[in-house]
Amino acid sequence: MRISAIALLASISACSAFSLNKAPRLAATSLSMSAAEGNRRTFITETTKATALTAAASMVGVSSNPAPAEAASKMWERIQLPFEDTVYDVDFDSPTHGYIVGARGSFAETNDGGNTWEPRSFQNLDAEEEVTYRFTQVSFQNGEGWVLGKPTLMLHTKDNGQSWERIPLSPKLPGDPASIVGLGPSKAEMTTSSGAVYTTDNAGRNWKAQVKETIDATLNRISSSGVSGASYFSGNIINQKRDNDGSYLAVSSRGNFFLTWEPGQDFWIPHNRGTPRRIQSMGFVQGDIHKGVWMTLNGGKLLISPKDTDLQKEETDFVEANIKTGGYGITDVAWRSDNEVWAVGGSNTMYVSMDGGKNFSFDKSANSYPGNLYNVKFFKDFGNMGFALGSNGTLLKYRG
């Protein structure tokens, strides 16, 4: 599928407005953001009931925690959330103010650096029309924020979340929205499950394509690329990760190869995974493609590439890290510093390396909680504070 240079036109009048209102009753025709009265956040619109399942949950099984021989550290503290649903993403626009999003419309705000959270709700009076959304991504910068949800939903705020508008997206969009990141006033970058990359500089009214064609079109056009599983590819990509300068990594939905894209390139570049195990997740070392990439495989394996790896090649060199997971899958990896690296995964397992990712030891901070961890993030601009997120309303804050 060719992607047009200017796509997804959306008129201002088509945007639905949302405003903050703490009154117990709202005008019948309005949707507004208010303090939630229950223990979960609900977003109500006139559509059908959405699923609350997550693709991430299928990556790892929920089971009892392992009992590793080495439980040498406990460097994270659990933070209470006003709901018990899976949380997927958290972001801050100052050292104190941030939002967290999750399943079944879970949406909460903090004003003390993530130590306490208050639920927030979007509600319409007609409860019979309730739709439960799964909010998957949130991005905030200088009071301007973006939220992605499923079924397809994009929200935008310019006033620290006091009021929101719904950004309409074209039904011709190739794939479903997969990620969103704010880049400045009225500017953002969005990707889709088909590998499209779009930017906007007018708060989502217009989107400009950065890639000439979708991933399946690229791979089917060069079916003799030599990349295992790439020929006649017709699926979606998962686990899209963006580095600090706009380069992307993506994994095929079957985990049999991965792809990279850098700004200025016309197409995604496919790469063999170089192992019989399926890829579970990938990301950038310290958020920089030039510092390397990491890859996790089924069975709890973690591989890290050297600096300045040539990602123009089909084959990528990786070095396996010394990490004993007992077979539990690793879902995310994050660098807190050059030497301190954290990995999280199934059964709420956590591992820390103090030598740049060569050797990892077990951390028992989440050992007593059931569920899985899906995301670990550090905010270097705000004192390097860190959070780990997972199922059952699990939120851990780094204490060191």
Q: Please mark out the parts with pLDDT under 50 across 5 or more consecutive residues, or reply none.
A: 5-14, 18-31, 36-71, 124-131
Structural class: mainly beta
Task: Give average pLDDT, whole number.
Answer: 81
**Number of DSSP-assigned strands:** 32
Categorize the overall geometry.
globular
Distance between the termini: 48 Å
Tally of helical segments:
1
How is the main sheet built? 10 strands, mixed
| Binned strand content | 35-45%
Rg from Cα: 21 Å
Estimate the helix proportion, in percent: under 10%
Strand order of the largest sheet: 6-7-8-9-3-2-13-12-11-10
How are the SSEs placed, and which strands pair?
Elements: E1 6-7, E2 16-20, E3 31-35, E4 71-73, E5 76-78, E6 87-92, E7 98-102, E8 107-110, E9 118-123, E10 134-141, E11 144-150, E12 153-157, E13 163-166, E14 177-184, E15 187-192, E16 197-200, E17 207-209, H1 215-221, E18 237-242, E19 248-252, E20 257-261, E21 269-272, E22 279-284, E23 293-297, E24 301-304, E25 319-320, E26 330-335, E27 341-345, E28 350-353, E29 361-363, E30 373-379, E31 385-390, E32 395-398
Parallel strand pairs: 2-3, 4-29
Antiparallel strand pairs: 1-17, 2-13, 3-9, 5-32, 6-7, 7-8, 8-9, 10-11, 11-12, 12-13, 14-15, 15-16, 16-17, 18-19, 19-20, 20-21, 22-23, 23-24, 24-25, 26-27, 27-28, 28-29, 30-31, 31-32
